[in-house]
Design goal:
The N terminus is likely disordered. The protein folds into 2 domains: about 90 residues, Winged helix-like DNA-binding domain superfamily/Winged helix DNA-binding domain (Arc Repressor Mutant, subunit A); about 140 residues, Four Helix Bundle (Hemerythrin (Met), subunit A) (Up-down Bundle), CATH 1.20.120. The protein is built from 12 helices and 2 strands. It is mainly alpha-helical and about 260 residues long.
Length: about 260
Amino acid sequence: MSEANFVNDEESARPADEARGPGRRLHGAIAHKLGTAILSGKYAPGDILSGEVAFAEELQVSRSAYREAIQVLTAKGLVASRPKAGTRVLPRDRWNLLDPEVLGWAFAGEPDIEFVRSLFELRAIVEPAAARLAAQRRDKNDLKVMKDALAAMRRHTLTTEAGRAADRDFHNAILQATRNDALLVLSASIGAAVNWTTQFKQRARALPRNPIPDHVRVYDAIAAGDAAGAAEAMNVLVDLALEDTRSAMELPVGGE
């Protein structure tokens, strides 16, 4: 496989908004391939990856592109490279599992149900509290962003990338409305978790129910300044999303 074909094959599986320039596409595609292999368990913690020369020849890419890809994985805590010792897969507790790209790699294959549950537990801790704060601190602009995101979700539906982008915008707007800098640090991770779990739920069948009314209830409570109601509505939204995802994981791809 040529470098061009390798990049095209890998890029075709990635969201359109991740498109990059030619140089970055190549090492990004290699990082995607290796990262997905690590997250799927093909390479376990403690495993030593093939040497630079061997791997570059296997993938038919340049050694420099391979090295740059390893630097990406190193920065995300997946591997460590040492002279003579090679590149070793690090223990899972070293992985930056909340990195949006790492989350994408986890959902490129069949994610572990325990990992999916842990993501929803994180959302269940963070998002209801964020909705509570948003109801107390939001302004007109925050509400407009949320309302526009809801309109886009209805227009495009969550079966499309545009609809899922609007879903991310909605959840991000709530975090923005908290006026809490520490919570804002989680916005990219929460957005990625929302995107990948929503996309994953639809891999085997259409969404079992329309989740947009759940989002509307969250918005209505925030708009009304009902802090307790916003927290409860968000808690219900996250719980139902987990049930939908668990149901999707019980079905084979293409199942009914």
